Amino acid sequence: MPAQTRQTPTTTTSATGTDTAAPTTAPPDLTNGRGNGAAAADVATAGPESSLLEQEPTKNKETRSGEAGRVTLSSGKSYVVSDKDMQDYDPWRAIARANGCTPERLQAFNQHVQEVNVGGTSQEMPLPPTTLAVGVEIYIPSAQELAFAECRRKAKSYDEAITLYGKLSQGPNIKMLDAAKMRASGKTGESYGTAGDGGNFYTPNAGLAGAKSAGKVDGVAQYKVFWLADFWKCSIFMNDAVFQAGYKPALMGNKHYATAGTADKQPQYKVVKASEAMPGDAWQKYGGTGSD
Q1: What is the reported pLDDT for 71?
Q2: How far is CA 99 from the centre of its chain?
Q3: Among 66, 75, 119, 127, which lies 20 to 30 A Cα-Cα from 236?
Q4: Which residues lie closer than 8 Å to 76 by C-beta, 6 or more apart?
Q5: Pair 138, 81: CB distance under 8 Å
Q6: Could you tell me what percent of the chain has a pLDDT over 90?
Q7: pTM score
Q8: Are 7 and 242 in contact (CB under 8 A)?
Q9: 66 and 41 in contact (C-beta within 8 Å)?
Q10: DSSP 119
């Protein structure tokens, strides 16, 4: 069974400073807020994969916006499809990977619903996802919207989803998701690939061996590190997200992060049951030295 690790809130350290990219999103207001983000995440769970981005105000959208007014989430962003995107064999995949999410979740936030009359009863009908083309504007959900959408999927009611999201926001999970989504996006995300960016990966952690200022990458000050020309960087990505979220990563004496196969043995993490998986937890697919 896969081992799941969770960052413990008790082992925190400051990740703020002039050269780091720590998240600045305030904790969500779960009682009095009225944010479109919550409406987005809520609508993205209705039907097979219907979504927030209504082109015209409808009764459905108004209803969902009112219902979602009980939780405030950071908003996502608009994105205009480029010629480069459309040259990819799967444009949804290309855009999703460049923005720190999966194509399935991205499409879920770019489907629409319409109300139809069936036997005198108004029902919602999910429509196909937005058709991509150069110049088409789509919506990129925030990490908080993605997390709340998963809470809606898991919960049996909206109240239960709010409670579940509230628990997530009290621990490291939401901060971890914010940091991980940012670090999986753009040039930063590409640098965690096997080949890196000319062999380098970008990090917010100036304490890593060989870290040198890279100036601003994806709009934030970062460092660049070269350890090997080609190697897997999954543990680097995870620990960088931990650092950026404001927690203490698993750093060894040589100023390298602990390898992926040893995450469950590090004091910064605790192992929990796979059945208790929550958005923002880290997964170690294989245990032991075989996954180093």
Answers
A1: 77
A2: 9
A3: 75
A4: 37, 40, 109, 139, 140, 141, 142, 145
A5: yes
A6: 46
A7: 0.73
A8: yes
A9: no
A10: T
Alpha-carbon distance 174 to 172, whole Å? 6
CA pair distance 145, 153, nearest whole angstrom: 12
Contact partners, residue 229, CB within 8 Å, separation at least 6: 195, 196, 199
Structure tokens at 138: 């789509």
Cα-based angle 238, 282, 151 (whole degrees, multiple of 5): 125
User: Nearest-5° angle of CA 71, CA 73, CA 78?
Assistant: 140
Q: Are 233 and 212 in contact (CB under 8 A)?
A: no
Alpha helices, H only, the chain: 36-43, 59-67, 83-87, 91-98, 103-108, 143-154, 158-170, 173-183, 186-191, 234-244
Q: Quick: pLDDT tens for 121-149.
A: 877 777 788 899 999 999 999 999 999 99
Q: Residue 30: pLDDT above 60? A: no
- Tell me the C-alpha distance between 101 and 81, whole Å: 16
Task: Fill in the amino acid letter for 132.
Answer: L
Distance (Å, rounded) from C-alpha 81 to C-alpha 94?
Answer: 10
CA distance 75 to 90: 26
∠ CA 109-96-23, rounded to 5°: 85
Residue 165 tokens, joined:
């999201």
